[in-house]
Amino acid sequence: MRMNLMMRLVLCVLRKVPKTGGFLFRDVPSSAALPIIRPTLGRQHSMSDRAKNAMQGYLNHFLGNIDIVNSQEVCRFLEVSRLSFLPEYGPKLKEDYIMVKHLPKIQRDDDSRKCCSCQWFGCCKDNWQKVWAVLKPGFLAFLKDPCEPEPLDIIVFDVLPASDGNGEGRVSLAKEIKDGNPLRHYFRVSCGSRCIKLRTKSDAKVKDWVAAINDAGLRPPEGWCHPHRFGSYAPPRGLTEDGSQAQWFVDGESAFEAIALAIEEAKSEIFICGWWLCPELYMRRPFHTNASFRLDALLEAKAKQGVQIYILLYKEVAIALKINSVYSKRKLVGIHENVRVLRYPDHFSSGVYLWSHHEKIVIVDHQICFIGGLDLCFGRYDSPEHKVGDCPPLIWPGKDYYNPRESEPNSWEDTMKDELDRKKYPRMPWHDVHCALWGPPCRDAARHFVQRWNYAKRNKAPREQAIPLLMPQHHMVIPHYMGMSSEMDNGSNGVARPHKNIKRHDSFSSGAWFS
């Protein structure tokens, strides 16, 4: 039987290999490469060992050619892709080609070939698209093929309602769909506002996919689809059980410097979400001696190092607010190609006018999260002294000397130009709190950002290749600069513990660590 599998692997490559370019036929070992093993009486054990060694040598020789290994046919046979063994997304669960009935806003290469009635009657098979499905513990991703790194679409698992409203019990993440045609084999994946219909080649494959997806959504330790306390999207996190840590900051002075130091340590990704963001904000004062600590300078330095930066801004109603998010987006996008910015929502097309997202989040490498009441914008930097004057300017430059009770800036183009007469008007003090999180709570906040980003991407920029969909990470690594001694993996039994003497930077508030 194993011999037959090897032959299938060879044949699946030979059928697809092009006659010109790529690897050559001579690179593919023939069946003659396997020695003939004749059965003998009384020597079954030695014969099985010889057969196993022969197959191992054959497979090693076959997969020794990198072009063969990277072919879609071999990837499909082995059910592997570029996402299979990336540790940040969790263990490999299930992968295969399936047909998916995509939402209208997912870009497809063959839109121009639809007939005029497809949109209404679904008469063309173009309504279905062949994709490579990758199941991970926290999400289901669809790729164009196994060799593609970027997903076409992704379903992030979330809490399911306790009942479907029809008295049929708990809602399932994946559910088989019965069809009158015995040759059609469907199932549906529903989570949150997402509902996607999928098709496979057999009932057995449908059952395998449904069981695997439902198990992935409910498997510990998170069990993303289980209901959680207070209706939360994430389970409760403890301060001792899972290595969670928190640190509070009072006023912008300590919070902004801690955020700046975390950004300086970034290695892979930075997520920023805010109601208002000013790229020219100085994160450390006095501003004259801290030019490198201006927010846009910090982000530019990390982007040039290859760090991917994703910024989600509230898109204001311009006649009501003067925060000018379009100016912020223009400045941020101009920093570097590794900086991506989305503004959400579109008010006129969506009919949304009476609410705004007030989340203020900064997440660095899925390792440390800052969340609370302080936007990275003018008027928020303050110290416990809450000084109302700054003349000559040392702490609050230009429009950062802010008092909307007296005058709201009409333009943010020249941020270093004073809006108020410093000798006549005081600045408005700002007293607020912020919080840093490490461990599983940080990853939960990052997962929330991923869901918000993907939702905005689908609605605002479904066809923009420069704006990718994001995938939530599975495990947490506690940052070395906070004194954690080892990697913390939620899939293991061990929990990383902090050193007894945790060294905190002077910019952190004087509050003790929660423990």
From TrEMBL:
<protein>
    <recommendedName>
        <fullName>phospholipase D</fullName>
        <ecNumber>3.1.4.4</ecNumber>
    </recommendedName>
</protein>
<keyword id="KW-0442">Lipid degradation</keyword>
<dbReference type="GO" id="GO:0004630">
    <property type="term" value="F:phospholipase D activity"/>
</dbReference>
<feature type="signal peptide">
    <location>
        <begin position="1"/>
        <end position="22"/>
    </location>
</feature>
<keyword id="KW-0378">Hydrolase</keyword>
<dbReference type="InterPro" id="IPR015679">
    <property type="entry name" value="PLipase_D_fam"/>
</dbReference>
<dbReference type="InterPro" id="IPR011993">
    <property type="entry name" value="PH-like_dom_sf"/>
</dbReference>
<feature type="domain" description="PH">
    <location>
        <begin position="127"/>
        <end position="218"/>
    </location>
</feature>
<dbReference type="InterPro" id="IPR001849">
    <property type="entry name" value="PH_domain"/>
</dbReference>
<feature type="domain" description="PLD phosphodiesterase">
    <location>
        <begin position="353"/>
        <end position="380"/>
    </location>
</feature>
<feature type="region of interest" description="Disordered">
    <location>
        <begin position="496"/>
        <end position="515"/>
    </location>
</feature>
<keyword id="KW-0443">Lipid metabolism</keyword>
<keyword id="KW-0677">Repeat</keyword>
<dbReference type="InterPro" id="IPR001736">
    <property type="entry name" value="PLipase_D/transphosphatidylase"/>
</dbReference>
<keyword id="KW-0732">Signal</keyword>
<dbReference type="Pfam" id="PF00614">
    <property type="entry name" value="PLDc"/>
</dbReference>
<dbReference type="GO" id="GO:0016042">
    <property type="term" value="P:lipid catabolic process"/>
</dbReference>
<dbReference type="Pfam" id="PF00169">
    <property type="entry name" value="PH"/>
</dbReference>
